[in-house]
Specification:
This protein has about 300 residues and is of the alpha/beta class. It is about 40% helix and about 10% strand. Helix 6 links the parallel strand 5 and strand 6. The structure holds adenosine-5'-triphosphate and magnesium ion.
Length: about 300
Amino acid sequence: MARKIAFINYKGGVGKTSLIVNTAACLARLGKRILLCDFDTQSNASIWLLKLDRWNPINTSGEGAVFSIFEPGHHRVKDLIIKDVVLDKAGGNALPGLDLLPTSFNLVDLESEYTGDPHRPAYVIFQEQIAEIENDYDFILFDCPPNILRASQCGIFTANEIYVPSNPDALSLIGFTLLVEKLGRFHQLSASFRKASMGVPAQICGIIFNAIKTGVDIEVPRMRMQLRLNQFKAAKRTAKDAHIFTAFVRDAMVVRRAVALGLPVTLLGQEAEGDNVVRDFERVADEILRNPPAP
Ligand SMILES: Nc1ncnc2c1ncn2[C@@H]1O[C@H](COP(=O)(O)OP(=O)(O)OP(=O)(O)O)[C@@H](O)[C@H]1O
Ligand SMILES: [Mg+2]
């Protein structure tokens, strides 16, 4: 069965999308089969991997984006997945094994206009459709916005593991704290919809520091985060082996460049060669691989 992991922090702009896209690419390069589900209405991951020329038609028509499984409800996740999404300049397959469930700006309607059936919340509809295809993957990853509204709920309800990208600052720590509170409440609200086959409700398993500037000592923010994590662990509000990743990701211009080029940093070739940040993402991927959730 696929490992299902949501990347989320209540703090925006910490690098959730950068981490998930680049880590997914590293895992795909290791031969893993990855489905990346974009649950952020900003569509950053979708625009990044599809580039504007392939994403614009989806956004304009709404056809092919994840919202169409909810309203009008004619599509299923399995029909919307873009296989081997990353293409090279000649339109060839640049990264076999990385598939995308794209989103478009209309996902915002899930939060307001969507009424649906109160007995079948959006997250139940989504989880059932992921269950149909999860045997096709080693990892199913959910890029979430910095909240636990309906779109995020789809990823969190379906996932068993949560990783929290963070910057070494007080606001990330606040975002983490808020996340733990909101997560507990969501698990209570959604408990009656869970089936035994889904495994444990998503638990916070790790915190990943991102965008660390050269010369910046992260020991103090790391210690503060560790103290907070210890408190939550003692209260059984995270996984019992939740940890701050040993791997962290440096701040590097090439990470921002990669978005403009529509490629994960591992595929930038010469431009990223010798840049340590590529190794950083590989280490993050490796640490995820080495830490499957306890049975
Ligand atoms: N390691 C890094 N080095 C340099 N720039 C980075 C790094 N990580 C992220 N960034 C840049 O920081 C900005 C925010 O990153 P990103 O979009 O991944 O954050 P996010 O947490 O997904 O944001 P949101 O909450 O809006 O979804 C982007 O411009 C991204 O390119
Ligand atoms: Mg994002």
